[in-house]
Amino acid sequence: MKGLTVRWSLGDAPEGVEEQLATYVADTSHARFTGMAGLAYKTWRMVPGAWFEGCYVFADDAAREAFQETFTASAAESPGSQIIGSAPILIEPCDIVAIAEGASGFTAAPRA
After folding, report:
1. Who's near 76: CB < 8 A, 6+ residues apart?
2. Fold of 2-95
3. How far apart are CA 10 and CA 19, in angstroms?
4. Which residue(s) pair with 93 in the sheet?
5. How are beta strands 51-58 and 90-95 bridged, if at all?
6. CA atoms within a 13 Å half-sphere pointing along the CA-CB vector of 51
7. Residue 5 has pLDDT above 90, yes or no
8. pTM of this prediction?
9. Distance CA 59, CA 48 (A)
């Protein structure tokens, strides 16, 4: 499996951006990625005041490369960049070594 991390800095983002991002994910982004061909799963992570990140796991290299190429070309204009007020500071491909599901299970939800 192939991964991709996209991270934005929240250091200079406007006040209240964390709630705006959570609402955008719940209302729009979650549905966009649910069921996406070639995508195994995506998580959205945030450390308030520090960074916001999308973590993608793709079925194979081709799916990751296609998404990365398309996203990178328009990253500065992406909805996340518009909400935050700046482009991502990191777009980094990686290999996924393993995935384990714990006893509590996995729950796909637009808001955690």
Report:
1. 87
2. Alpha-Beta Plaits (3.30.70)
3. 12
4. 4
5. unpaired
6. 13
7. yes
8. 0.92
9. 30
